[in-house]
Amino acid sequence: MKYKFCPECGEMLIEKELGDEGLIPYCNTCKKPYFEKVGQSVLVTVVNECNEVLLLKQNYVSRTNWVLVAGYIKKGETAEETAIREVIEETGQRSDKLRYIKSYYYEKHELLMLGYLMKVEKGDFSKSIEVDELKWFSFDDAILKLRCGSIGEKHLLNCLKYI
Ligand SMILES: [Zn+2]
User: Fold this and answer.
1) How far is the CA of 17 from the centre of ligand 1 (A)?
2) Residue 119 structural domain
3) What's the CATH number where 79 sits?
4) Mean pLDDT, to the nearest integer, of 97-109?
5) Residue ranges with CB less than 5 Å from ion ligand 1
6) More exposed terminus of the chain, fewer Cβ within 10 Å: N or C?
7) Torsion, CA 79, CA 138, CA 157, CA 107, rounded to 10
8) Measuring CA to CA, which residue among 50, 135, 68, 49 is closest to residue 106?
9) Does 37 have pLDDT greater than 90?
């Protein structure tokens, strides 16, 4: 998202040359630059002690494809805290065994996704109302259930050597 008005004082922003950054929207009243903003989220591959991968079905997203756990980073939260919170909220699994793998840029939603791998001891499912189904899959089956070419598929493949 590109700012046109100052979010603090409402003034129309001007374009100002800021070193290597080039022309950046700038508020002449507050003397502050406003860099283009992207959202931040986590994407988590959850794997259990039998090397099975946990996938979710969210019918409001897709009725046919399964997805990995994902969620927006809230203000004041670290990416690791978000990953742990989202996995609990969406699946009921609890663990702090997290490994950062790689980040992805999701153009359509202007979203930077930080990809993690989480190892859990298989626990009871408890899901949020946003989740319609939860299931453990073998790695090979999980790859087939994710949408071909999706960021989820790329992330699961990138996690493979750490599983
Ligand atoms: Zn301002």
Assistant:
1) 17
2) 39-162
3) 3.90.79.10
4) 96
5) 6, 8-9, 11, 27, 29-30
6) N
7) -60
8) 68
9) no
